[in-house]
Specification:
The protein is mainly alpha-helical and 258 residues long. The two termini are 22 Å apart. It has one domain. It is 78% helix and 0% strand.
């Protein structure tokens, strides 16, 4: 138990750093930790992951807002559609057995990551990304909804799907997109986390995980947001793709080997 209490905040800090750099929250890696290292159910793992994501998003957004990287129009779309999707995805999580959840989990980030990497390599020659404006259409709403469903089901943030679509397909500025997504994840992740954790009973020791997650995620997010502000947009896109692919491969490998 003592080892877990020491490892958990450090792990949460590392994931929050990576998540804020890549604009994805880092929830998939947290879910793997909870499922296989702590042996929690898929509902508990997803809920704790979303709580950590919401914490890192709050801290990261403070820095992003000060640097002027947040687009409010996109933020509103992601909130409305994302919350609807999170609600439905969370309901799905309750009816899917943990064993089945483990089997399908890895293929979601792997698919997203491969698409993101292919689009990133194809677009390396783009010199100027567009800034999102009010011309954002129904496609963005649909993507936001799908991202919400997957977030509620898996415990991942909405950044993997929305970030990939907005930067790879719509060719929007990665810094603005990632920063806006992280701000939206404050609300979607808190909502999803409460849906999961408010309906289950935790063992006494497990309740200690929540403050440790919050502390670690806050520190990692602060550092990650600062670093991401000085890195080139194209490098952020590549980093996001590689992180998502790695997560998918890791999840599938662990499932096969364990």
């Amino acid at each position: 138990m003592l080892a877990i209490l020491l490892i958990l905040p450090v792990f949460a800090m590392s994931i929050a750093f990576i998540g804020n750099m890549a604009g994805i929250g880092g929830g998939a890696l947290l879910v793997l930790f909870f499922l296989y290292y702590l042996g929690l159910s898929s509902v508990s793992a997803s809920g704790l992951s979303l709580i950590a994501i919401s914490t890192s998003s709050i801290v990261g957004s403070y820095s992003n807002i000060r640097q002027g990287f947040v687009n409010l129009h996109l933020f509103k779309i992601l909130i409305v559609m994302g919350l609807t999707g999170v609600f439905l995805g969370s309901l799905l999580n309750f009816v899917i057995p943990t064993a089945v959840f483990k089997g399908v989990f890895g293929f979601i980030p792997l698919t997203i990551g491969i698409f993101s990497l292919a689009a990133t390599l194809k677009q390396r020659k783009i010199k100027n990304y567009k800034s999102p404006g009010k011309e954002l259409g129904k496609d963005v709403s649909v993507v936001g909804f799908i991202a919400g469903v997957i977030s509620g089901f898996t415990g991942m943030g909405i950044g993997g799907i929305t970030g990939t679509y907005m930067t790879a397909v719509r060719k929007m500025n990665p810094k603005i997109i990632f920063s806006t997504i992280i701000l939206a994840m404050i609300i979607t992740s808190v909502f999803g986390g409460l849906l999961h954790l408010g309906t289950i009973s935790f063992p006494g020791n497990t309740l200690l995980y929540i403050p440790l997650l919050i502390i670690g995620a806050a520190i990692g997010a602060f550092i990650g947001a600062r670093v991401s502000g000085i890195i080139k947009s194209k490098n952020l896109r590549l980093f996001q793709s590689l992180v998502i692919i790695f997560t998918g491969i890791l999840a599938i490998s662990i499932y096969i080997l364990v």
